[in-house]
Amino acid sequence: SVSKFTDYELKAYAKAGVVADEVISSMRTVAAFGGEKREVERYEKNLVFAQRWGIRKGIVMGFFTGFVWCLIFLCYALAFWYGSTLVLDEGEYTPGTVIQIFLSVIVGALNLGNASPCLEAFATGRAAATSIFETIDRKPIIDCMSEDGYKLDRIKGEIEFHNVTFHYPSRPEVKILNDLNMVIKPGEMTALVGPSGAGKSTALQLIQRFYDPCEGMVTVDGHDIRSLNIQWLRDQIGIVEQEPVLFSTTIAENIRYGREDATMEDIVQAAKEANAYNFIMDLPQGYFFQWNLEQ
């Protein structure tokens, strides 16, 4: 019961932490729409659930602790009564021997009592470790570290969608792509245009094999991408996300990310083609300027 209550309590605190993280990272948006009070209420609501489970856990732990100390005092009473009986009625032991045994009982009982608070820590650790080991033991459907699949000797880059139907695992009732057929020829510039939620980003994620189609297949040069080595496939793809991310390292290392063998000349050329060369050179140390998340 303690482990179960602790698990529920940790989940409630985790939800509250997610709310806090969302609000802090989007502070300006929350302030712009006057959502401070609403977000505080949402945070407190999750804390109330954590408090309820914490109280239940405390009741169980209090009952268990009281039970342990009850056993300790019963051990004292038993030692006094039985020791007196052996000395006075039967004369088998001397008072000194009885005192030694009684002191041993006291030490053992005190150690048992001192161990009881640790049981809560064990229960908390067990609940936390359960979710961690579930994540560690989980077998991903698409294993990015797998060495399976083959690598093409030469690649032209023709991408084709064959009757692709897809929905996200969390929303199986909503079809994002329905019987999509599309051919992207090598060297062509292809634009996917549509409203939000039409599946533009999803189509790109299928090419990168973040997901596999529910029906149909995506091919590169006629090869189903599910039969290709996933690391090799992603090495052939260059991508600029809607919201670029900078890691806490130098500008040069951020540009080199994904292609570790890129030389400094390659980095400079990539920056020029992306029209980023001038403002990078305006930084204090240019390409070796150390970026951090606080900037």
Automatic annotation (TrEMBL):
Subcellular location, principal: membrane
Membrane topology of the entry: Multi-pass membrane protein
Gene3D superfamilies, per the entry: ABC transporter type 1, transmembrane domain (1.20.1560.10), P-loop containing nucleotide triphosphate hydrolases (3.40.50.300)
GO biological process: oligopeptide export from mitochondrion
InterPro entries: ABC1_TM_dom, ABC1_TM_sf, ABC_transporter-like_ATP-bd, P-loop_NTPase, Type_1_exporter
Domain ABC transmembrane type-1: 1-124
Cited Pfam families: ABC_membrane, ABC_tran
Keywords: Cell membrane, Endosome, Glycoprotein, Membrane, Phosphoprotein, Repeat, Translocase, Transmembrane, Transmembrane helix, Transport, Ubl conjugation
GO MF entries: ABC-type oligopeptide transporter activity; ATP binding; ATP hydrolysis activity
Cell compartment(s), UniProt: Apical cell membrane; Recycling endosome membrane
Transmembrane segments: 59-81, 93-112
An example Gene Ontology CC term for this record: apical plasma membrane
Top-level taxonomic group: Eukaryota
Entry's family note: Belongs to the ABC transporter superfamily. ABCB family. Multidrug resistance exporter (TC 3.A.1.201) subfamily.
Protein name (database record): ABCB11 isoform 2
Source organism per UniProt: Pongo abelii (Sumatran orangutan)
